[in-house]
């Protein structure tokens, strides 16, 4: 007998295939299939087809194996296929967990995501690269204030975009844990890096102009922190002592 195809096993008088589904190794015996080279090849093809269906989010366990006890445990009572359906069921569940104000803000964010991603988009088709494209659209695209269109503008802050993407990843993580999708497109999505604002100290010309405009005592107070490298706390203490000595 030739080498068995990947995922095909011989157990006694039966041909059996195995595949990964929702993070678990599932095994199914092909009852009524005699152990012949032709059937072994067919089993390999069936297994390849099942793997393809799993990866594309189209696999329905009990349709392939109606009598499977494993399939009965893996099946869900509700099938969610589109992004709009996912938003609806996620919102309904989260309403019992989140405060009213948080839920109001979250629904507003979901409204934007529904437009950018499109409610009819199959969640099984959303890939890691798609999430990055959604992020770019949020970062550089126009805001979507439907209630007040005049306030719309181009682009959003990095922090705002990170919040939107974090919400999207939460939705997709929920979809994966619920068995609605078999992949993890949310893995590896990082926060955007923010540009740190560089300090803008006084130039030498600006400092000299400032000192020239002050009187002697004020000039001394302004000059010392720059030239002597005073720590802020020590500088305040020194100024306090000067004020006390002036009163005395």
UniProtKB/TrEMBL annotation:
Question: Which Pfam family, giving just one, matches this sequence?
Answer: Arm-DNA-bind_2
The answer on whether this UniProt entry bears the keyword Nucleus reads no
Q: Does the keyword Ion transport apply?
A: no
What Gene3D superfamilies does the database record attribute to this sequence? 1.10.150.130
Q: Which UniProt keywords apply?
A: DNA integration, DNA-binding
List the molecular function annotations (GO) for this entry: DNA binding
Q: Which residues form the Core-binding (CB) domain?
A: 81-176
Its BP terms in the Gene Ontology are: DNA integration
- SUPFAM superfamilies according to UniProt: DNA breaking-rejoining enzymes
Name assigned to this protein: Phage integrase
Species: Escherichia coli
């Amino acid at each position: 007998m030739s080498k068995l195809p990947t995922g095909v096993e011989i157990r006694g008088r039966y041909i059996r295939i195995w595949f990964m589904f929702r993070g678990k190794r599932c095994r199914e015996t092909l009852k009524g299939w005699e152990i012949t080279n032709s059937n072994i090849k067919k089993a390999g093809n069936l297994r390849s087809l099942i793997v393809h269906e799993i990866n594309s989010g189209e696999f329905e366990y009990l349709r392939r194996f109606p009598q499977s006890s494993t399939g009965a445990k893996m099946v869900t009572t509700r099938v969610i296929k589109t992004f709009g359906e996912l938003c609806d069921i996620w919102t309904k569940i989260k309403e019992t967990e989140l405060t009213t104000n948080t839920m109001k803000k979250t629904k507003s964010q979901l409204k934007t995501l529904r437009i950018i991603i499109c409610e009819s988009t199959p969640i099984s088709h959303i890939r890691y690269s798609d999430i990055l494209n959604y992020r770019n659209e949020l970062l550089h695209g126009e805001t979507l204030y439907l209630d007040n269109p005049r306030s719309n503008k181009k682009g959003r802050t990095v922090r705002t975009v990170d919040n939107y993407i974090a919400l999207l990843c939460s939705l997709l993580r929920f979809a994966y844990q619920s068995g609605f999708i078999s992949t993890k497109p949310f893995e590896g999505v990082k926060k955007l890096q923010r540009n740190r604002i560089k300090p803008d100290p006084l130039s030498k010309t600006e400092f000299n102009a400032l000192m020239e405009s002050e009187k002697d005592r004020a000039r001394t107070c302004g000059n010392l922190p720059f030239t002597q490298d005073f720590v802020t706390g020590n500088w305040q203490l020194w100024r306090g002592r000067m004020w006390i000595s002036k009163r005395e």
